[in-house]
């Protein structure tokens, strides 16, 4: 890559990048990307000595993430990347300083599935750790989405997603006993879909 920023950060989510710029994750050491895909959000962490793990239901995605890890951080164990489902992750409780879950939770089948994934993400986070979630919401496009049941909606862009709203996210934040380390922020993409960033910190014990 000729672009040095892209070489350093990869095709990183702009809101993960924002937290890197703010230094939020500077003192983290162990990172899990839950639903990592090919690993676009882990370049920086791999290149900067973090211990990085990933899980994804898609075996091809995990092969890509392993290859990326081997290329950028030969000392990071490729065995840290596993094929599996977020809702029944094999990782020990309270393992990670940072858990990233970007563009995954809106694939929930229903509220039970959403809550299973959320509980699993929270379980593997250590006290004081950060959970970074990016997910689809109806915030700002409430009138434009159409319910198809089980918390899922048809969006103006033609996709079907499990959607949350501000009140739901605030409710889960309280129920988990979490702190927001960044206000809930939403990007409205031409009224076709809205993507919300939900940043939770687990309190120290
Ligand atoms: C839109 S991609 C996002 C990938 C990556 N997080 C990113 O931001 O580029 C969604 C990913 O979530 C994975 N996924 C969806 N539901 C999952 C689940 N329940 N458990 C594990 N992976 C899941 C898919 O296989 C896919 O790789």
Task: Give a description of the structure.
This protein is α/β, with parallel strands linked by helices. It has a single domain, classed as Vaccinia Virus protein VP39 (Rossmann fold), CATH 3.40.50.150. The protein is built from 6 helices and 10 strands; from the N terminus they run ααβαβαββαββββαββ. The protein has helices spanning 4-9, 14-22, 43-47, 59-72, 111-123, 166-176, and strands spanning 30-34, 51-56, 81-83, 96-102, 125-137, 146-149, 152-154, 160-162, 179-189, 193-201. The strands form 2 sheets. The protein has a 7-stranded mixed sheet, sandwiched between helices. It has a 3-stranded antiparallel sheet with strand order 6-7-8, with no helix packed on it. Strand 9 (179-189) and strand 10 form a beta hairpin. The mean pLDDT is 97.
Topology (elements, then pairings):
Layout: H1 4-9, H2 14-22, E1 30-34, H3 43-47, E2 51-56, H4 59-72, E3 81-83, E4 96-102, H5 111-123, E5 125-137, E6 146-149, E7 152-154, E8 160-162, H6 166-176, E9 179-189, E10 193-201
Parallel strand pairs: 1-2, 1-4, 2-3, 4-5
Antiparallel strand pairs: 5-10, 6-7, 7-8, 9-10
> Based on the structure, what is the oligomeric state of the protein chains?
single chain
CATH topology category name: Rossmann fold
The total of helices stands at 6
- Which class do the helix and strand fractions yield? alpha/beta
Q: If strands are numbered along the chain, what order do they take across the biggest sheet?
A: 3-2-1-4-5-10-9
Q: Kindly report how far apart the N and C termini lie.
A: 43 Å
Largest sheet: 7 strands, mixed
Strand content: 25-35%
């Amino acid at each position: 890559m000729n672009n040095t920023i892209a070489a350093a950060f990869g095709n990183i989510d702009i809101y993960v990048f924002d937290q890197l710029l703010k230094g939020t994750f500077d003192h983290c050491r162990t990172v899990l990307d839950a639903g990592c895909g090919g690993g676009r959000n882990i370049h920086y962490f791999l290149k900067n000595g973090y211990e990085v793990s990933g899980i994804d239901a898609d075996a091809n995605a995990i092969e890509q993430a392993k290859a990326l890890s081997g290329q950028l951080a030969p000392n990071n164990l490729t065995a840290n990347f596993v094929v599996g489902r977020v809702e029944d992750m094999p990782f020990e409780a309270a393992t990670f300083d940072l858990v990233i879950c970007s563009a995954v939770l809106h694939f929930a089948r229903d509220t039970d599935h959403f809550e299973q994934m959320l509980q699993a993400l929270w379980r593997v986070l250590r006290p004081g750790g950060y959970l970074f979630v990016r997910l689809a919401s109806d915030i700002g496009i409430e009138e434009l989405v159409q319910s198809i049941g089980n918390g899922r909606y048809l969006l103006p862009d033609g996709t079907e997603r499990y959607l949350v709203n501000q009140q739901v996210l605030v409710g889960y934040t309280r129920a988990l006993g979490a702190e927001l380390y960044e206000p809930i922020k939403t990007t409205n993409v031409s009224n076709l879909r809205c993507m919300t960033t939900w940043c939770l910190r687990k309190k120290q014990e």
